[in-house]
Prior knowledge:
Elements: H1 3-10, E1 33-40, H2 50-63, E2 73-81, E3 87-94, H3 98-114, H4 118-129, E4 137-148, E5 158-166, H5 174-189, E6 197-205, E7 211-218, H6 222-238, H7 242-253, E8 256-267
Antiparallel strand pairs: 1-3, 1-4, 2-3, 2-8, 4-6, 5-7, 5-8, 6-7
Helix pairs in contact: 1-7, 5-6
Amino acid sequence: MKTSKVMLLLGLLLLMVIPSTIFAQSENQRPAYITVTTGHWNMDYENFDRKEWIAVEKEFLDKVAKKNEFIIRSFIFLHRFTPDNTEIIFVNTYSSWDNIDKASQRNNELAKEAWPDEAKREEYFKKRNAYYADTHSDEIYVPIAGAKMLAPSDKEMIWLVVKGHFAFPEDGSRKEFDTLSKEYLDNVINKNEYIKGYYQHGHAWGADRTEYVRAFVIESMGDLDKMGKRSTELFKEHWPDEAKRKEFGKKMSKYFTGKHGDYIYTSVPELTK
């Protein structure tokens, strides 16, 4: 197996579903679930202005989301290179399944507190909703151990999202998988200086139970290629013997279908909790 093929298979690394400190703010705020809503821009909206849109969304963030004790973190991501340029991704993290519903109820309460006058409240949400189409989709994921935490920053970052699929091999075992995964994470992902943050999620609720999502956070589009080359270098450094590399790749490959898709998004730091 050539190194490039091994790297592709390793690109689908999956650890067993163990809650981790992904996006954590403190030890007592470890998320157990992540909701991902894929919305779409209203393409008929006239005179769109990014600053005005951010101002409208930031008003909701400051008055509602940041005050909602059931939401640990929240993020908004914009299309950079994906099959659909209308995509806008809303991500929230929660400490329990129950808190997903509680957060929704709390949002309604906080909205009424922020805009006690019903007419003004309706006016605000009409303005906010005008930016988006009516259609959207929802997925719920479980954080998986092995995150490389992104340092706090107000800088716009590039997020490469890789969606792969688990193969559920009959001759596989959690012990073997955990050992292989940890070795790769420790010696490639965590040592790659171009990877500023790394997160992985497993399916919890959605259309495909085999889905496995990884997110690589880098500083610029120019670092994408550098990240890949550096991972290949680190892979060869840790397994200098070609036979050992092939052996590792063969063991790991049985856990995955080999199929994956890549999506690139840009974060909106002004709209992050």
